[in-house]
Structure formats: C-alpha cells, structure tokens
Design goal:
986 residues, alpha+beta, 17-stranded antiparallel β-sheet, five-stranded parallel β-sheet, 22 strands, globular
Length: 986
Amino acid sequence: MFEESFLSQVRRLIVGARIPSHLAHRERFSRVTGLAVLSSDPLSSVAYATEEILRVLTMGGIAALSLVTPIGAIIAAMLAVVVFSYRQTIHAYPNGGGAYMVAKENLGRMPSLIAAAALLIDYVLTVAVSIAAGVAAITSAVPAWHLNTVEVSLAFVALLTIGNLRGVRESGRLFAAPTYFFIVSILAMLGVGAWRYLAGSLVPMPLPADALPLGSGGVDALGLFVILTAFSNGCTAMTGVEAVSNGVPAFRPPESRNAAATLVAMAVMSITMFMGITLLAHAYGIIPSATETVVSQIARGTFGAGSPLYYSVQAATMLILVLAANTAYADFPRLASIVARDGFLPRQFMNQGDRLAFSNGIVILSVLAGLLLVVFGGDTHSLIPLYMIGVFVSFTLSQSGMVVHWWRLRTSGWRSSAAINGFGAIVTGIVLLIVATTKAFEGAWIVLVMIPTLVMIFTVTRRHYDHVATELTLQDWHQEPAGHHTVIVPIGGIQRAVVKALQYACTLSADVRAVYVDIDPAATASLRQQWDRWGHGVELVVLPSPYRSLMEPLLGYLDQVQAASPNGYLTVILPEFMPRRLWHHLLHNQHALLIKGALLFKPNVIVTSVPFHLGRRAGTAAVVALLVLGSAAAASAEQAQPSESSWQWGGFADVGALFDLADPENTVFRGRGTTWHLGQPHLNMAAVAVKRKPSPLSRWGTELLAQAGKDSELFALSATAPSLAGHEWLRHVGLANVSYLAPAGHGLTIQAGIFASLIGYDSLYARDNASYTRPWSADFTPFLMMGVNAAYPLSPRLTLTGAVTNGYWHLAHANNVPNGSAQLAFQISPQLLLKETILAGPHQAATSPSRWRFLSDTVVERRTERAVAALEWQVATERIDSPAGDRAWWLAAQAPMQWIPSERWSMALRPELAWDSQGRWTLARQTVIALTTTLQYRASFPRAGAQLRLEHRVDVSRGPDGGFFRGDAGRKATQHLLVLALIASV
C-alpha cells in the first residue's frame, strides 16, 4: 500500500480523508443545510443594513432619522421582487451559474463576462465585509479587542478556509447551527421588542457618548443626493440573493425545487428581520455609534446590557456575519469552475480536491479576502462602498437576460414571466445607477475599474486557450518525415548512474554522445583513461569552459547539434541518483533540474531522466563519499587555476553646482538633485571603496565603502523617526557587508551587512546614473539596507533574490520589526531584462500589519552597445499616522533613456511622473511631472577618468495643497533647474 508522506498526513488531519468520486451525490445540500450555507449572506446583511442607512440620515438630525422606515420598506419590497425573479431563474437554469449563465445564453459573451467579473469581485468583498462586520459585533461586546480587528479577521478567514476545504457536508454541519442560532436570536429580540412596544414599556435609548454627530435642519436639509446615498447604503440588505441560483447543482434532487424553496424561505426571513430591526431602531431612537453596532444597541435596550440574552444576540450576530462569508465560499469556487470550463479562467479552477471541493478557488478567495482586510484595516464602513456595485450589475444583467429568455421561448405564460423579470431589471438597474453615483467617490470606483480589468483577463485567457487549440488541432495538418535522432548524455564523471544511463541511451539511437564539460583538467584526464572500459563505445565529447561554467558550453553544444539537423529529434538523457532521504538533496548540485528548466521550451528536444536509487546504507555512504570527492575536486581545481588577486579598489569625487532659473532664491526643490547648494560649486559626495567578489575559487567576498559630502548628511537625519545610535559615523558608511557563494546549483550567494537595496533603478551615486539629479521613484525607495539577502540563479537567465532587512534609509530605527523583500530578475534576451521586486513590512513606530507598507517595483530595461532604454513603475501604500488613519497611496514612474554616439559623448532623457495621494512623501497632496535632459562628456586618463555633465530639469506639480513639495505655498509651481557637475574617479 502506498505510504503517505508526513505532509500528506498533516493535510489529511486538516482537510479530512479523501472522498471517491462515486460518492459525490452525498456531498450535496438538503434544504436545511442549503439555507444555512447559501443564505447566510442575505440573512446576515440585516445586521448592518439599517445601521448604514442611519449613518447617512444623521446628517439631517433627529427628525431625519424617521426616514429609515420608508427607506427600509422600499428596500424590502425590492428584495421581494428580486427574489421572485430569481425563483424563475432557478427553474429556467437548473444547472446553476446564475447571472453568468443567463447572460451567456441570452445576451452574449461580453455581458456574461461582465456578470462573471462582477460576481467574482462581489464574492471576495462578501468575505471581507461579512468577517469585518462580524468582528465589529465582537468588539461591540468586548471593546478591548478593537485594537486587534485585522488579526481576528484573518483568523476567521483561516477557519472558513479549512471548513470549506473539508467539503460540502462538513461545512454544512459546521455552519448550520450558527445560522439557525442567529435566526432564533434575532426573531426573539424582535418579538420581545414588539411586545414591549405594544405594552408601552419600550424606553428610547439615551444618546451614546460616542454617537455620530447629528446635523440640523431635519429632512428638508438632507437633499435628494443624501437620501439616495442612505437608500444605496441600505441596499446591502439585498446582497447575496443570487447565491442560491448560482448553486442550484449543489442541492439534492430535485435540485430546482429544493433551491426555489430555500430561496423563498430565505426571502421571508430576511425581509422579516430587516424590517423588524428597522422599526425597532426607529422606536428606540437609535443613533449610530463609532464603537457599538445598531443591533447591539437594540439588544441592550430590549434585554439589558448585562443580560445573557444580550450576549446571545451578539454572539449569534458575530457568528452569522463571519459565516456569511461561507456563501461566497460556496459560490465563488463553483462559478470560477464554470467560467474556467468555458476557457475564460485557468483550468485549475475546474479541479476538485480530495474532498470534492473546488480547492483552488477556495484558496484564491481566502488570499484575496485576506489582502482586502489587511489593506482596509478590517473596517466595515470602508469596505461597504466597494460591495454593492458587483451585486447590482449581476442583478440587472440576470433579469435582463431572463426577459430575452422568455421572449425567445414564448411558452405558456411567458408574458407575465417576462414582465416580472423586466420589472426586476428596471428596479435593479435604477439602484445600480444610484449606487454607482453615490458611492463612486467613496471607493466604488475601484470596482468600476476592476470589472473591465477582470473582463480583459478573461478575454486574454480565452484567446490563449483558443490559440493552443489551433496549434494542437490535427485538421489540415500534414505529418513531417522523421529526421535524424541524436541522443546526448551529459555526464559529470564515471559512476554507476552514468553507466546505466549510457546503456539506456544506446537502446534509443545509433548516434549517442556523452558530453563532459572540462572544468578540472586533472578530472578530465582521469575520465579519458576510464572511458574505453566503461563508455560502451559511446563517443565522448569534451567541451572547454574557460569561465568554469557548466550550463553555457552544454547549451551551446546542443544548439549546434540542432542546427545540423533542424527537423531531427534531440533526446537528452540525464543520469540522476536519488537519495533515500529528502534532505540529502540539499547536499548535491541540482544540475539535472537546471538542465530540464533550460531545455523545457526548446522544440524537438526531449529530456528524460534515468534514476539510480540509493539504498539506506548506500545513500549515507554515497553522501559522505561525494562530499569527500567534491572537496578534493574543488581543491584540485583551485590548484589548477592561476592565482590572481580578486580584490578591487577605487574612489570618486562628485562636485556640482545647481541653479533654479524660475525661482533663484529657492533653496528647496523636487526630485532631489545630488547637491543642495544653489549657485556655487559644492562637494556632493566623495567615496573610497574596496571589494572582493565571491567566486567558485574564492567563495568569500566583501564590500566596504566610506563616503563623505553633503549628500551623506541625508543618512543622519529623519523627520519622522529617531536616528540610529552612532549615526554620526554610520552615515559615512555606504557599504559594509560580507558575502558567501555556496556550492548549490549555479551558486547561492548570501550577503549580510549593509548592502544596496533590491528596489529601484537609480543608484545613490550620480556617477552610476545617466542623469545627475534623481527621480521621485528613487526617493520613494531605500538606497541601502541593513540585514541579510540571498540570491539564487534558478537558471542562467532567471535569478530569485530575497532579503530580510531593517531600513538604513535616513538611519531610521522606528521599530525592531524587519521588512521582507523579494525580487525576480529575468534576462529575457541578451538585451532585455525584467525585474519585479516587492517589499512588505512596517516603516513606522506602529508595527501592526494594518500599518505595513506594501511596495511593488517593476523595471524593464533594454540595453544595446549604443543605447539604453528603461521603464520603471512603483505602486505603494501604507496607513499613515493621522486622526482618520488614512491609507496613503503613491505611484511613481520614470522612463530613462540614454544614447551613446561615441566613447566621449552621451545624451540622456528622463520623463517621470509621481502621484502622492496623501502627501506621504512630498508632504503635500499632488501630482509631479518632470522632464530631465542631460549632456555628458567623458574624458579618460591613465588609471582615472572624469565626467562633465550639463543637465536641465523642468518640473511641474499640481495639487490641492499648493502643488509644491513640503507644502511651501511661497514657491513657484514650475521649476527650471540647471546643473553643472564634474565627477572624477579612479
């Protein structure tokens, strides 16, 4: 019997035992579990829909709060219309899919993709909003937990993920009890509240100490837009109605009848609870509070603050709100699988896991919802404006599609059915316009942008699958005659695995060649002596490698073989020995894996492995022997190479003068020039450096750079955080690190100390840049970091680097929590380079994940002998210290270009754009646009060189805070900087 690994056993413990496919019919909903799983979203919406109405109506004062009842009644009537319309959809489309399937069959591809995008976005928001509202219910009862809302929210996401990965039946059992507990608790509260109202014992609630401020002027002062905003807020009570129609196939037979009955039951309970809470809120005179929900205030007024029934209502509300996200967990993976089946999403979404759940969709949903909760700090009121756009887009498209459906069929009673769905489409379309208008500036514009973006992703995915199908079809394809078959066996010496691979290779073709890369002349001579005995008559090809590279000579030889027979087949046989223990792999170079990756995309090249399995004793002995042999081989190789020093040293001095042509008296300017003195030459930076680069012959390396000058003073100061101890001398340290090249694959380089940041395109030093001044994208980025990084070339063209650091920028030491960053660098071609870098971590005294900075930096560079062109863009966000705790966003982009017509002359052009939404970096909300032009003359001397630069930078900024960074309104908006600089180096 197959023995499961430890990881598989852990997975079984969390997810549960596997379920065979023939038992799939057991993993379906009954009406009881279907109501619990698919109706928890609309049922839970009643917990905050009334509160969202009241939060807007408070702008008109006490008198305006009376509008909550008629607004609630209109919403309840609309909910009934939508539910009745969806009931017809369930019977017309028993295979599920909801709005996507209806729009696809009746309105066409594009409307169906819009519906799918809207629904998928809505499901992600459902998880985030429901969990955030559930945590708000907890913090209302236990205010001390208010500071940990994000952490608690993420814990609930993890719980829901595990519950749904265990399958439909498990999730139904897990979530049924809280749903019915909520229904009973709310109905009991409404019943007692109604009885107290009729008996005349209901006492209005006193004004909370932290109640939202009331306006004045009553209903007349609100205006139509504010009333419509309150109405659109309350329409959250209608969210989740489409979940049942999307999940019809998840019900037991007869699916349509069970789903329709569940939908009606859900509607009756939702309308009853929503109107009950709305009427009681008006009767109690509830005013929304910043720390206590409306339902909590009603329960406190009905049962008493310390009553067990009060805590029962709060617990039930918390549970249903958290578990309301389970509606999305039921429908997001199912809808994603349907869209994937049509070719608009990756086919991995169609796969069912061991428990017959769409595991990939569940995991993706959890990750996206978790990111939303972190970015928005788990705040319900910040998330809700994003919530309803997708809901009503799908409502409107679904009902419009049903009208077309009835028009096409024209069966008995089609006119009345079409009229019902038509009325539903009109109603939801009007609400969509209202919601889009009133919520656009509160954040709903993000969803309005995301829907077409997701539709574009759908289209690109389908285009790819169509292209693959076209390439693979046998129609009109004529088989080409088979060409010459060459078998190549890369070897690293003579041992059992190689001999077995050669035996196998000889059975495939008469043209078999063993290829050996000559790195160690002594080892090569030994191989030649043994080849006649063990080579089985196979031709031995020895490739020279002057730079001790294994991959480059091998790949070059394979290209030559293919070029000699373009229509032939090339089989590469890789001899691999397989250690018994997993950790043993860490002790060996993974050359076979690297070769597979390099040859994967080459046509007519087949790569196969001949494994040689080591036994327990043999495995241990082989490990020891190979370690000894590897050490001996490395020692002999080092002796064979000429001994030459790998130490390098040098230095430079940078002197510059800057003039502000538009504002001669200005001493502050945007886009930091590397000199801070105007109208006079000044030493910007002087530095001396010594370094040793690690190599296979000398694996330890180091860098040390000492610096001085005006620019180095920036590293001693910080306006927002205290400086590190000893900054007066530390600011003179540019680089100070040690590095080690570990013998793993192409080499794993580990670096510790102060090193150059992974992020950004521009260097700290002007001599390394095409332009003299630096762009805003560089200012958004730390130039140097303290910590540890590791770089590993996954292939000759792909390198992965990761770092754990504290910021050295400004010598800020606001906290002791490190940042994490990772970079993927892909050399697409000899001229084209792509780098993607991400950074996450705290950059303020507050270290909560909700305050973390998230930054993405992308660089695309094309370099030829005479020109360099690059494009860099950054997107970053963090929640800043302010009374409102606003989330700051900033974007920056630059496109530097350099032309080198001769060895002495060069020209550079750098357009750039920066947007600072909250003035996080420029100290004023604004958009900065700049264009920099540089002319450089280079002179060469024995062992020295000099660069003379003339640069002009025009800078335009506009913004609500005056448009000038540092918020100095006395400065002119447009700047013309002229820079003259001399950089001498040795």
